[in-house]
Amino acid sequence: MPTAGEKKTLWFLAIVALSGSGVRLWRSSGPPVTAADSLALDAQIARVDSVRALNHAVTRGRGRRLDAGPATRTPGDAARVASLDSSDATPLDLDRATQDEIEGLPGIGPALAKRIVAFRDSVGSFGQVEALCDVSGIGPALVKRLRPLVTFTGQHRPVSDECDGASKQARASHRPRDSKPR
User: Fold this and answer.
1) How far is CA 32 from CA 27, 35, 73, 153, 167, in A?
2) 0.85 cut: is pTM over it?
3) Beta carbons within 8 Å of 168's beta carbon, 6+ residues apart
4) Domains of the chain
5) Which neighbouring-strand residues pair with 151?
6) How many of the other CB atoms lie within 10 Å of CB of 125?
7) Which of 37, 45, 167, 170 has its CA 20 to 30 A from that of 31?
8) What is the pLDDT of residues 100-145, one digit of tens each?
9) Is-contact 84 176, C-beta < 8 A?
10) Which whole number is the average pLDDT over 89-110?
């Protein structure tokens, strides 16, 4: 048998539960949703969805790229991207970029972009700019030019010393064919 204090506590909890249910019921019976309210809500949801579609090309930790790809571009985006100089644009993620996006970088044509994508697909993500030197046709000068324009979200991997000019071995000098070694 509950004591007097326990009975008071049970009554108090019952009243709180019933009053909470009553408030919820009263709030749910508010004014009916009109067609105008429904249209306004749909328009707001459409705006949010369009912003999400434009932000789909977000590079993790680096912000939004302005050249989000052909599927999400609007006619105004091309002019906006063209009007920006390279210091305003967010770097291109070479660990995820398509061949067409890579071709847009200075000094990279279709053949080199294809080699970059093929190398990335066969070996894995670059992870750092120095790893680009492992791709045939990319040397220290091009890496220096691309450094401020690219970023990498992939895992860092060991790289060769291809781009380090001091570590490249000098080629053996060619001697005339008719001379004999000493």
Assistant:
1) 12, 10, 39, 49, 76
2) no
3) 161, 162
4) 58-163 (1.10.150.320)
5) 93
6) 17
7) 45
8) 999 989 889 999 999 999 998 888 888 888 888 888 888 889 989 9
9) no
10) 88
Q: How confident is the model over 13-41, as pLDDT tens digits?
A: 999 999 999 998 888 877 777 888 888 88
Angle at 38 between CA 33 and CA 39, to 5 degrees: 145
